[in-house]
Amino acid sequence: MSQLSDLTIHTKLKLSALWASTMSCYIYCDYFELYIPGKLESMLRGEMGPLGTVTQGVLMGTSILMAIPSLMIFLSVALPARYNKILNIVIGALFTLLLAFFVYAAGWYFYRFFAAIETVLTALVVWYAWRWPKAESAVQLPGQVAHSQ
Q: Considering just the CA atoms, what is the radius of gyration of the chain in Å?
């Protein structure tokens, strides 16, 4: 029986992929939310769920909140390891707590389902960042010796 070969993926790429997966779940969840009866009518009335009436401030606040994980996709690859680790632990932990709240607070099962997945993904961000190796190559081929960066 032959063994399958595999690559060792750098922590930066793992973190970036986790943030991209999280954002994909956000987008699909928000899209499916449009199918909730009465959702479009409340949007047309200028209501934004538990945040109340749509204002410049509410839209700016939610934009900032959603821009953070979007930016983390790039920052996880681009930032130096030291800052990258700290930022991923802090932002990942904050989003994990926020998303864990939605697992219990959301009324619709699909929303809870996505919130649970997003909670696991952001918890994995924290876990991978916390366990960041001291020396790591970008991609390591099977049988290749790892070199320090």
A: 19
pLDDT in tens, 22-47: 999 999 999 999 999 999 999 999 99
Cα separation, 62 vs 66, in Å, equals: 6
Helix (H) or strand (E) holding 93: helix 81-105
Residue boundaries of the structural domains of the chain: 8-134
Contact 140, 8 (CB under 8 A): yes
Q: How many CA atoms lie within 13 A of 58 on its CB side?
A: 10
Q: Identify the CA nearest to 15 among candidates 78, 64, 66, 63.
A: 78
Q: What is the pLDDT of residues 59-75, one digit of tens each?
A: 999 999 999 999 999 99
The reply to whether the predicted model has a pTM over 0.70 is yes
Strand 139-140 and strand 8-9: pairing?
antiparallel
Cα(9)–Cα(5) distance, rounded to whole angstroms? 13
